[in-house]
Amino acid sequence: MKKAFILLITFSLVLGLSYPVLAADKTKTDSLNTTQLKNSEIKTIFDYKDELGLSKNQIESIRTLVDKLKAIFDGNNKKLNNLRNELGAMLKNKEKLGQIKEQLIKISNIQIENSYADIETSRNIEGILFTEQLNKWKEMQQDFQQKQK
């Protein structure tokens, strides 16, 4: 679960343009789930649409990208949970190291897919924003990250 949370934080910081930038209670890192995300303080680019001067078309385009990314993450998270459960059983049953390594590679490949999709979405969103909007958004993200430290 900690890896999933770290991936989500990485996702939030890299993408930051649209998906949640978490200000979640750090004690919840072991069991982060949808309910906790809803109960956490979440800020997205949509919360700052007026400050950034986002047009309706920009908002719709960004929302489409975010929804697509969320679908990728949701599907991959289900796969990751299954693979991790299988890995746990493999470890418990003292399976051969080669099989365990293969399972770890499968898990890593999905994590790579998630990270790449995140980066790709972030770049696509950056392409939707005008230069002034992008610069202002990056400034806002830096301020948020400074406050988190």
Task: Describe it.
- This protein is mainly alpha-helical and 149 residues long.
- It is built from 6 helices and 2 strands.
- The chain has a two-stranded antiparallel sheet.
- The radius of gyration is 18 Å and the shape is elongated.
- Residues 1-40 have low confidence and may be disordered.
Report a brief summary of the structure.
The protein has 149 residues and is mostly helical. It has helices at 2-15, 34-39, 49-52, 56-92, 97-128, 131-148; strands at residues 21-22, 42-43.
Key attributes of the depicted protein:
mainly alpha, 2 strands, two-stranded antiparallel sheet, 74% helix, 149 residues
Walk me through the topology.
Layout: H1 2-15, E1 21-22, H2 34-39, E2 42-43, H3 49-52, H4 56-92, H5 97-128, H6 131-148
Antiparallel strand pairs: 1-2
Helix pairs in contact: 1-5, 4-5
Number of distinct beta strands: 2
Low-confidence parts, pLDDT < 50 over ≥5 residues? 1-40
What is the C-alpha radius of gyration, as a whole number of Å? 18 Å
Mean pLDDT: 80
The order of strands across the largest sheet is 1-2
The helix content, as a percent range, equals over 70%
Distance between the termini: 22 Å
- Major pleated sheet: 2 strands, antiparallel
